Amino acid sequence: MCGIVGIAGTAPTSERLIEGLRRLEYRGYDSAGIAVIQDGSVQRCRAEGKIRNLDNALRDNPIDGVTGIAHTRWATHGRPTTDNAHPHTSGNVAIVHNGIIENFKDLRDDLSAKGHVFVTETDSEVIAHLIDHHIQAGLSHDKAFAKTLSELRGAYGVAAIFADKPDTVMAARQGSPLAVGLAEDETFIGSDSMALAPFTRQIVYLEEGDWCIATPGDVRIFDASGKPANREVVISTAAAELVDKAGCRHFMEKEIHEQPESVGRTLSQYISAVDESFAFQPGELGLSKADRLISVACGTAFYAGATAKYWFERYAGLAVEADIASEYRYRQPVMPQHGAAIFISQSGETADTLAALRHCKQNGVRTIGVVNVPESSIAREADLHLRTLAGPEIGVASTKAYTAQLSALACIALAAASSRGKMTKEETAEKVRALLEVPRLINEVMLVEPQIEELARALTHHTDVLYLGRGQFFPLAMEGALKLKEIAYIHAEGYAAGELKHGPIALIEDGTPVIVIAPWDELFEKTISNVQEVAARGADVTLFTDPRGAKEAGDSVRTIIIPECDPIAQAIVAAIPIQLLAYHTAVLMGTDVDQPRNLAKSVTVE
Length: 606
Ligand code: HGA
Prior knowledge:
eight-stranded antiparallel beta sheet, 606 residues, six-stranded antiparallel beta sheet, alpha/beta, Rossmann fold, binds glutamine hydroxamate, Glutamine Phosphoribosylpyrophosphate, subunit 1, domain 1, globular
């Protein structure tokens, strides 16, 4: 969500802070700001909207200093205005914050009574006042910072600078990720290693409850109890170059078209094209004897897990509960005795998913993370990290990370099937061959793009769209509806085709667009019956199917034909036209495709 950068440096920081922020803009972009220590006082520059607005504001009113902090915001408390933009100040203190301070009202009331004047609607401002209050009461800066942390309830990644301690940045982590970057004579703070990649590759990840004092070329880290802590220095793999659009109009367009490569890269991590076997020991998954698998995730990643449920059950005979992380963590779920839990997240920092993982770990359940960012919290904390290799995904609406998740999960399901003795070597080899075809099939399915653009044009005239699917295509129907809502701002529902007659069919009227995802399979006839039901009531149906399905459906319905392939491959291939449909509709609607309103890329708050 919000992104934080801090530099305790020896050279001017303003431009570098902005550079760091640009790399974090995917986390939030409703306002941004920086603060530096200049001539012994805190100087701030803030602007509403995207980072380029801050950059322009800085050009008009330049500020600079060798110590500074910066923030890009995704508002949770208070409107996205310049006044509410971070950094927030009190006296000599300036802070930036990622997270939510749950007890901010009590703290604010208490400090107001003591004479502090609050000028924003945010929860975060209280942190600046609290630190300032403790310093004014006579505590050293370190002690004031630590005492403040002990008084905060909720989640935070926070960084602070002090006009009267001009070489220092203090930072802390509780529930929101924070990394420290080390260089010879400078020290950096960032929400993730991507932000720090232009400055250094030597990274220390703060652990839960850690806080630190960063000075040029040095950092002292303390754990939650205040004891000095030693944390491993890792070499980050994040690329220093800012990812660019490679000639595409949007990152999302580029990321959709990168999928042959990203899926191929992910698959090759798990299966070998040489002998159609697994590139790892299936037994390593620890699923050979499992009686239950829990799949926990949010948003698009949840739909990847919900699709994989069909594979684990069908191929590996393993019962799966696919759950939404924000529900799972508060539901007092019954833990599997001999099972495992799988957590799916692009960023690996999704707050609800991370909390669910910790809950499972505490209860002795084996945890598996399917994560795209290898240095992230979920990747590090899971008992087993299974990588997706989608590469950096910048568009807020997930595309290549989703198909990479599906690819990894397909391999995991087949490996589980093999280690559980549910599939013979020949059977798994056949499925592995089918998966290895997916990158080529994705290239092939892209050829329907002109037809999709035409369909997208029609959707722009509607305010409601229904997506239908059965079996493994039901989660894809929900994912299609989610994509359309996210970026085209058109209301859409994804439904199980057979469930339609139990309610949503009442919504169908003349011209209601209905998108049906139904390549030919054993359920095809049933889905076609549902198509007839809605068509009879005036719906404008488009059927995404393969050549066989198109033949069976006849001329009565508009079809978009996708390649024929094995069902496990089809669940991945069929996702592409669904993504393209949302993309083109959004472009035609003129929305901000890569940074849709109200959304942020990785949701590190509850
Ligand atoms: N609560 C703070 C920070 C929001 C945040 O971290 N979002 O991800 C605010 O609203 O400014």
